[in-house]
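request received
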Amino acid sequence: MPPQTPTRSTPDSSGPINLASSQEEIAFDIKGFNLWYGAHQALHEIDIQIPARKVTAIIGPSGCGKSTFLRALNRLHELTPGTRLNGNLRLFGDDLYSAHVEPAVVRRRVGMVFQKSNPFPTLSIGENVLVGLRLNGIRDSSVLQERLEYSLRMAALWDEVKDVLKRPGVSLSGGQQQRLCIARALAVQPEVLLMDEPCSALDPIATAKIEELIQVLRSKYTVVIVTHNMQQASRCSDRTAFFYLGRLIEYGETRSLFMNPSNPQTEAYVSGRFG
Amino acid sequence: MSVIDPAAPIMPAPTPRWQDSSFKWLAWGAAMMVVVLIVLVGWELYHGAHLAIARYGIKFFGSTDWDPVNEQFGALPFIFGTLVSSLVALIVAVPLGVATALFLTDLAPIKLRQPIVTVIELLAAVPSVIFGLWGIFFLIPWLREHLFVWLKHTLGFLPLFKGPIYGVSMLAAGLIVAIMILPIITSISREILRSVPGLQREAAYALGATRWEVTKIAVLSYARRGIFGAAILGLGRALGETMAVTMVIGNRPEISASLFAPGYTLASVIANEFAEATSDIYLNALFELGLVLLAVTVLINIIAQLMLRAMGGAIKVH
Amino acid sequence: MAEILAVHSTFAPTAAQQAWRRWYSRGVSVLLSLCALLVMAPLFLVVWFLISKGASALDWNFFTQLPKPSGEPGGGMANAIVGTFVLLGMAGIIGVPLGVMGGVYLAEYASPRMNRFIRFSADVLNGVPSIVWGMVAYAMLVVPFKGYSAYAGGVALGLMMIPLVIRTTEEVLVLVPQSYREAALALGISQWKVIVIIVLRTALAGIITGVLVALARVAGETAPLLFTALGNNFWAHSLSQPISAMPLQIFNYAISPYEDWHRQAWAGALVLMAIILTLNLVVRFMSRDRTRR
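response:
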């Protein structure tokens, strides 16, 4: 039995949670991160380091802040008026919240796929995939064609749609639409792919396809996936973070977190006693 | 994977933030046009009327003289005409509109509902001038030869129905405006009636009430305020009606107790005489009439909007 | 036990009372049905008159010729028909951009308080009588330029359109699901492009519908044109001249003493009604199409 990587759980943060392996590249380095919606504090002193090119799952009961946290990673929470935050959030060393960084730039590096697939209804399949590129000014048709094929292949959708690229994006099945959204996100060459409960609206077969896809994606992209399905988290991810009431309760290698959680709250959640 | 992935980044520099701010300010400017327009309308009318306001002051509202040649201008006949014709329109249109709304929500079979609603919506689409045309060649003769004669015969003891019958009259104007405000009153009443919670009706039925007792007890009393708001909105529309009224009211600036008498409204006199106004003071007097019309209409509309909004935001009002 | 039943029966309605209440109920039903019929009658009457009196006067001349001088039979409304479309075009140029952008601001940027304030103001503006718009355009464009013009008429109609289009645009934009905006922003697309290329395009059918409704409203307006566009018995050779329009011509003909002009007024009314009806039918068709999917 391979030596277990020791994990340290902190009920309240007293220092960053370090990954044992120092050869792992860090994608997100987050220290002392707090976020408020108006007067309500949604995230408390989050300290976490998310490794590059691995899948990190974020689990926790409803309202624990996992979606809020995910959205803070690509500054999408700024759509809600009245949000405030402080703390440090770096992506591969770059401070994402510094004053001169445009949210649009952050979002090109950190892509997102949503709970309910949302291909743009007025665009065809091909147009959906390329919309991020086109609207950012890329016109070269050979580049566009390359990206189209690459993104659809990465999303395991190319063979299914290569002959019908002109059909409306919304004419695909639910699972295919979600893979289309993944392709759309991948087309703009992000470094990170955030996934907010991507399978919650899908049937088991479509879910399995996407879980397969995630394993392929992690070879090139850092994946952070929020899920309320613990089996999915333990199947797909390398690391898991357990959030509760806006705090990061425990974070570590998935196997050890599920089989041998250090924190009693984690244990209660993963054994199904609440949530 | 045998797919080419251009590893070199291909994304160009990000769009500068000024594009987003400029767009936002453009949109803001367009939205603020609404405020600008309110101010503009008020200002232009006031400015256009300032000579008359200065010269006639308060007497403008009490005087019944309208004599452009001798520069005697008084607004009273027009205010009277506007109020009377609008009131007549309300008295006719509100009961009919509410009754039709009741018919549509409670009585009509489902298949009939959409066609009837369509007919009423088409009624709303007919322009004022076409109603006026129809008024001149159908309504006026019919009123003159049938309805007015009957009214005089049966109700002629009332001062309202005394006097010679010309056809063109306050009553004719009131009737035609009633037709024109029926769609809005009906549609708002329908929405209000629909918003009455089913529980109220059920409770009344459970007490053994018949269908219309249910309506009277549970529905109408609940909806009273909203229907009143609909009536006020209808009044606002009625006050501003110009063309159809001009074509059937007779255009005589007189105050009379009889509904058969010709009259004149604020909007009609402006419509008829504006382009012919020869002197500055004449034009200013007409502008002042317009200012009165604007003030009254805006006030009534604000009251109506506030009443309807108080009934819950779901009522669509255009 | 018997006492309980006795108490019950003193409150029960008598048979006579029951019968009367039923008759009353039936009476009310009949009354309401009659009211509904009465309300629908004017439309049928108007349409009947339009067709019976107007169709006979429609001929090739009507569509191609200019009005003849007072009382002479013949002639047509060609300039009025063209004039109406010209004025609608000008109104659209003013009303559509300002109205749509205003709706964009309300739906995408405005705070709830600002939103309520502007919506309320737009509703107030919608209640301003159309003749007042004519007076405003007169003061702004006819007086300084010392002449009636198509510009003045177009501006009067265009200003009227703005509050209408703002409201209809806002209503439609609010229906676009937030997830499309989020997905587009998440791709790193700048905000204005998200609004114009994703949101507006998704809502395009609804926006067009709103514009058509406003145009149909404005197409039939006479009062604002009475002292702005004024009317013209000949072709307007430039937009700074008075121009004819169908509602104006119908009005002038209707109040004239000439039989032939009355005939033409009906014909003009029929054509005008047909234009407005067509716009309304297009709107209905476009609105129905989306729900089928």
